[in-house]
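The data are set out underneath:

___
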Amino acid sequence: MIAYLAQRLLVAAATLLAASLVVFAMLEVIPGDPARLMLGMNATPDALEALRNEMGLNDPLPVRYLDWVAGMAALDFGRSYTYSVPVIDLIVERIVVSLPLALISLALSVVIAIPAGAFAAQRRGRAGDALSMGAAQLGVAIPNFWFALLLIYLFAVWLRLVPAGGFPGWSAGIWPALKALLLPAVALALPQAAILARVTRSALIETLGEDYVRTARAKGLPFGTVLWRHALRNALIPVLTIVGLQFSFLLAGTIIIENVFYLPGLGRLVFQAITQRDLIVVEGVVMLLVATVVAVNFLVDISYAVVDPRLRAR
């Protein structure tokens, strides 16, 4: 088990290092001068040069890269060119929206998908299976932003049950904040639930063909007991893989949904930073999201060892 964890930690560290090199290199080759962006087109050459020196833009690339990595290790992501505040403050301000939204969406996805996938696997080749997988196929095909617009029209405009957009802040109370996140969470969760349900069904069908399942059935155990108590646990490894990927997607890939619902989250922050050419914000947020993806994948790898005892013996 220790060797397994050490191997996964080494892979995670190498992934972070490679990602930091790629992000830094890609943003460095983008044309544009951050100093001129901050001071404007009418800035004098002396003022531009002084600001470049202050920001370290004239330092050699290896020095800038090492300073950037060292700063991130100390949670110093630099200072935003546009907002003139530390990037970490912008991240903290926005992540209190994006993280709960991703967690709620993921919880909804799992709650919907695993029972639906198990239901379809239990009725393989019958009407229930076809109906469930047909609904899942529809969920995969429908773009989440279009589904979000339908939800806004139905629940916000017509029924007036929830707000159509915006976020009042957690200081307004837990329930008003959750109401503002409910429709975006549903819009994000249903397409992901459709994917997860199909994976769950496929994994369960494969597991149900194993010898131990046939032995349990031969001993007289009901099919539902065999499915939920024995087959499902052994089918969880591909399901956990998709769940980990979905959390990473839900945290990092909400730009469209956050703009549809006017949510001040990380996705919208990245979009605004790109349009304003605030590269230091883009670098910081992207690396934070990469670190989150690596951390989630590491936790998924640990969950593999919990689910599959064979990995604990390595």
User: Anything to note?
Assistant: The chain has 15 helices and no strands. The chain has a mean pLDDT of 82. Residues 2-73 form one domain. The chain has two domains: 2-73, 87-312.
